[in-house]
């Protein structure tokens, strides 16, 4: 499911949300303009769980690669030694949430943040939203690290932090509705769901994938799960806007 819009317009300009979108866009453009397709940036600023667990140990990545030989294409083992990071490994739990692995990864994350971020910033304020985004992003990174602390695969993406925003949204706006699209072969099905239902389905899908998938799938499912739960807990502590404290604007679909 892909969200198209919600029916709760924000009452203030979501400056922090726009700044996050701009930072992620600038970082992604820098990645795709690098001669090595941004791999040096990913290895430097992406979170590598093994580097975080063993910061003083030289990191050697062993992987199978396809090589053209006289007998055709063969799969051979390859060992790669990563150069020491120029930034403290613990800092990558933050820097990794501003990087992305491709156009679909980038565009999908930015769209979800655009749809849900403005309302959460409206409720928490600019500083509160910034702290939520960074805090849940760090918790998401640590959640992924905890499920595979010796993994040599770099972890990047804003998904965990955005999941935190979505978790907060699910609690803060229980009566919101989300216009969504379900891509089906031949045609696109558009429908409207209550926001908690849409986000609940999304969270259930992440949890199912996290439980049934292995750590080498290339998707940090537990980062999504950890970020969503952290965001929901923060929203639960803060509480919903009390009835009568002001009009809640909404758009009818």
Automatic annotation (TrEMBL):
Q: How does it sit in the membrane?
A: Multi-pass membrane protein
- One GO molecular-function entry: serine-type endopeptidase activity
Q: Where is the Peptidase S54 rhomboid domain?
A: 90-240
InterPro entries attached here? Peptidase_S54_rhomboid_dom, Rhomboid-like_sf, Rhomboid_protease_S54
Membrane recorded as keyword: yes
Which spans are transmembrane here?
90-115, 127-147, 153-172, 184-204, 219-239
**Localization, UniProt:** Membrane
Main localisation? membrane
Record protein name field: Rhomboid family protein
Q: What is the lineage of its organism?
A: Bacteria, Pseudomonadati, Planctomycetota, Planctomycetia, Pirellulales
């Amino acid at each position: 499911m892909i969200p198209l819009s919600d029916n709760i317009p924000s009452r203030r300009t979501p400056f922090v949300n726009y700044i996050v979108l701009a930072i992620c866009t600038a970082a992604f453009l820098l990645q795709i303009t690098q001669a090595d397709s941004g791999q040096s940036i990913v290895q430097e600023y992406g979170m590598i769980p093994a580097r975080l667990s063993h910061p003083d140990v030289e990191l050697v990545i062993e992987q199978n690669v396809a090589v053209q030989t006289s007998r055709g294409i063969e799969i051979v083992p390859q060992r790669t030694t990563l150069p020491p990071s120029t930034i403290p490994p613990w800092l990558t739990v933050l820097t990794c949430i501003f990087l992305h692995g491709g156009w679909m990864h980038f565009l999908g994350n930015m769209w979800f943040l655009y749809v849900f971020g403005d309302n959460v910033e409206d409720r928490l304020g600019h500083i509160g939203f910034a702290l939520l985004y960074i805090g849940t992003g760090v918790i998401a990174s640590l959640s992924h690290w905890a499920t595979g602390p010796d993994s040599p695969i770099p972890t990047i993406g804003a998904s965990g932090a955005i999941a935190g925003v979505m978790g907060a949204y699910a609690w803060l706006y229980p009566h919101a509705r989300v216009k969504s699209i379900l891509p089906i072969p031949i045609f696109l099905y558009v429908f409207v769901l209550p926001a908690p239902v849409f986000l609940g389905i999304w969270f259930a899908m992440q949890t199912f994938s996290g439980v049934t998938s292995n750590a080498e799938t290339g998707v940090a499912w537990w980062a999504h799960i950890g970020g969503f739960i952290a965001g929901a807990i923060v929203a639960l502590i803060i509480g919903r806007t009390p009835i009568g404290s002001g009009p809640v604007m909404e758009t009818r679909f």
